[in-house]
Amino acid sequence: MNDAEVALSEPAPSTKAAEITEAQPIERKLIKEGTLTFETADLTQTKKQIMQAIKKHQGYIASENESNTSGSLNHTVIVRVPAKQFDIFIDDATKGIDRFDTKDIQVKDVTEEFVDIQARLKTKKELEQRYLDLLKKSQ
């Protein structure tokens, strides 16, 4: 057995996906996620600052949880903001915070999935149009 027989390669992208990527350059589609944990002397003021940052950066609260354990008041907020606003939002929401217990920021590139879904959608719309054309011809 020689090397050519055992070489592995990725499958070629579908022709529809290839047509879309070749026809026009695609802007990278990124999903940014972050987990921040910190202490604050004034929870009410910090919450107000975060809410102002959410509004300023066209975000919304997806989930909110408040708990009181061991004499410590904890407030957890899951916020959704546009990826382009993410870094500025983090800076605005945590302005004045000196020390983070946790700061974990991750970026996921979903461009390939986006292109694939676009190609599938285009194919489905073409198929729908063919069915509509057939229906018009039928009696």
Written overview of the protein:
The protein is of the alpha+beta class. The chain has 2 domains: 30-108, Alpha-Beta Plaits; 110-139. The protein is 45% helix and 27% strand. It has 5 helices and 4 strands. The strands form 2 sheets. The chain has a two-stranded antiparallel ribbon. The protein has a two-stranded antiparallel ribbon with strand order 2-3. α2 (15-23) crosses α5 (111-137). It is elongated and about 75 Å long. Residues 1-18 have low confidence and may be disordered.
Strand order of the largest sheet: 1-4
Q: Strand percentage, roughly? A: 25-35%
**Whole-number average pLDDT?**
81
CATH level-1 class of the largest domain: Alpha Beta
Secondary-structure element string: HHEHEEHEH
The level of helicity is: 40-55%
User: If helices are DSSP runs of H or I spanning 4 or more residues, what is the number of helices?
Assistant: 5
CATH architecture of the largest domain: 2-Layer Sandwich
Shape: elongated
As for the number of domains, it is: 2
Q: How many whole angstroms does the radius of gyration measure?
A: 24 Å
Number of strands: 4
Gap between N and C termini, in Å?
A: 62 Å
Please state the structural category. alpha+beta
- The third-level CATH topology of the largest domain is Alpha-Beta Plaits
Main sheet summary: 2 strands, antiparallel
Low-confidence stretches: 1-18
Organism: Olivibacter ginsenosidimutans
Protein name: DUF4349 domain-containing protein
Domain DUF4349: 28-138
Pfam family, one: DUF4349
